[in-house]
UniProtKB/TrEMBL annotation:
Keywords noted in UniProt: Transferase
Lineage, broadest ranks: Bacteria, Pseudomonadati, Pseudomonadota, Alphaproteobacteria, Rhodobacterales
Source species: Rubellimicrobium rubrum
Protein name in UniProt: N-acetyltransferase
N-acetyltransferase domain ranges (all copies): 1-144
GO MF annotation: an example: acyltransferase activity, transferring groups other than amino-acyl groups
Coiled coil feature spans: none
Keyword Transferase attached: yes
Length: 163
């Protein structure tokens, strides 16, 4: 398996992968594949990676900028992250997340936020926020990974997440 930058020719495979990975999940909105596409269409994909095994896309992660109190923040939002159901539990998602975070640090990002399961994302250093909040989103699922000091204020995701 190798992790590489997502390319334009991957879009159809990534869309099918994301739909498959989120199908039937209680936390899924059913819009995850459209969010992924909309982030690309808007040029808002700071990091977009795929995991490929024997020529087949088996996982993906995308990272986009988030705002703080309505303005640029230097922070990013992780997700959606997806792995084919039959390949979950094999470290593919972990590899994608680690590589995405490494790239964010290299770009000088201030940190990363996500909505997800703290039990899973805690292994990467994500924790409940101390000074950040995301109005209208479930506070118990908001997690942060500061690369320096954590700012305070309201986190805003790209409009693609409103699909």
């Amino acid at each position: 398996m190798r992790i590489r930058d997502e390319e334009g020719g991957d879009r159809e495979a990534v869309a099918a992968l994301v739909v498959s990975a989120f199908a039937g999940r209680p936390y899924a909105s059913g819009t995850e594949a459209r969010i992924h596409a909309a982030l690309h269409d808007a040029g808002a994909a700071t990091v977009a990676l795929v995991a490929e095994d024997t020529g087949r896309v088996v996982g993906q992660v995308i990272v986009s900028p988030v705002t703080l109190d309505g303005g640029p923040s230097g922070w990013h939002g992780l997700g959606p992250v997806a792995v084919l159901p039959e390949r979950q539990g094999q470290g593919i998602g972990s590899g994608l997340i680690v590589e995405a975070l490494t790239r964010l640090r290299g770009l000088g990002s201030g940190g990363c936020v996500l909505l997800g399961d703290g039990g899973y994302y805690g292994r990467f250093g994500f924790r409940p926020p101390r000074g950040l909040h995301a109005p209208g989103l479930p506070a118990e699922h908001l997690f942060v990974l500061p690369f320096g000091d954590e700012p305070t204020g309201a986190v805003g995701y790209h409009p693609a997440f409103g699909i």
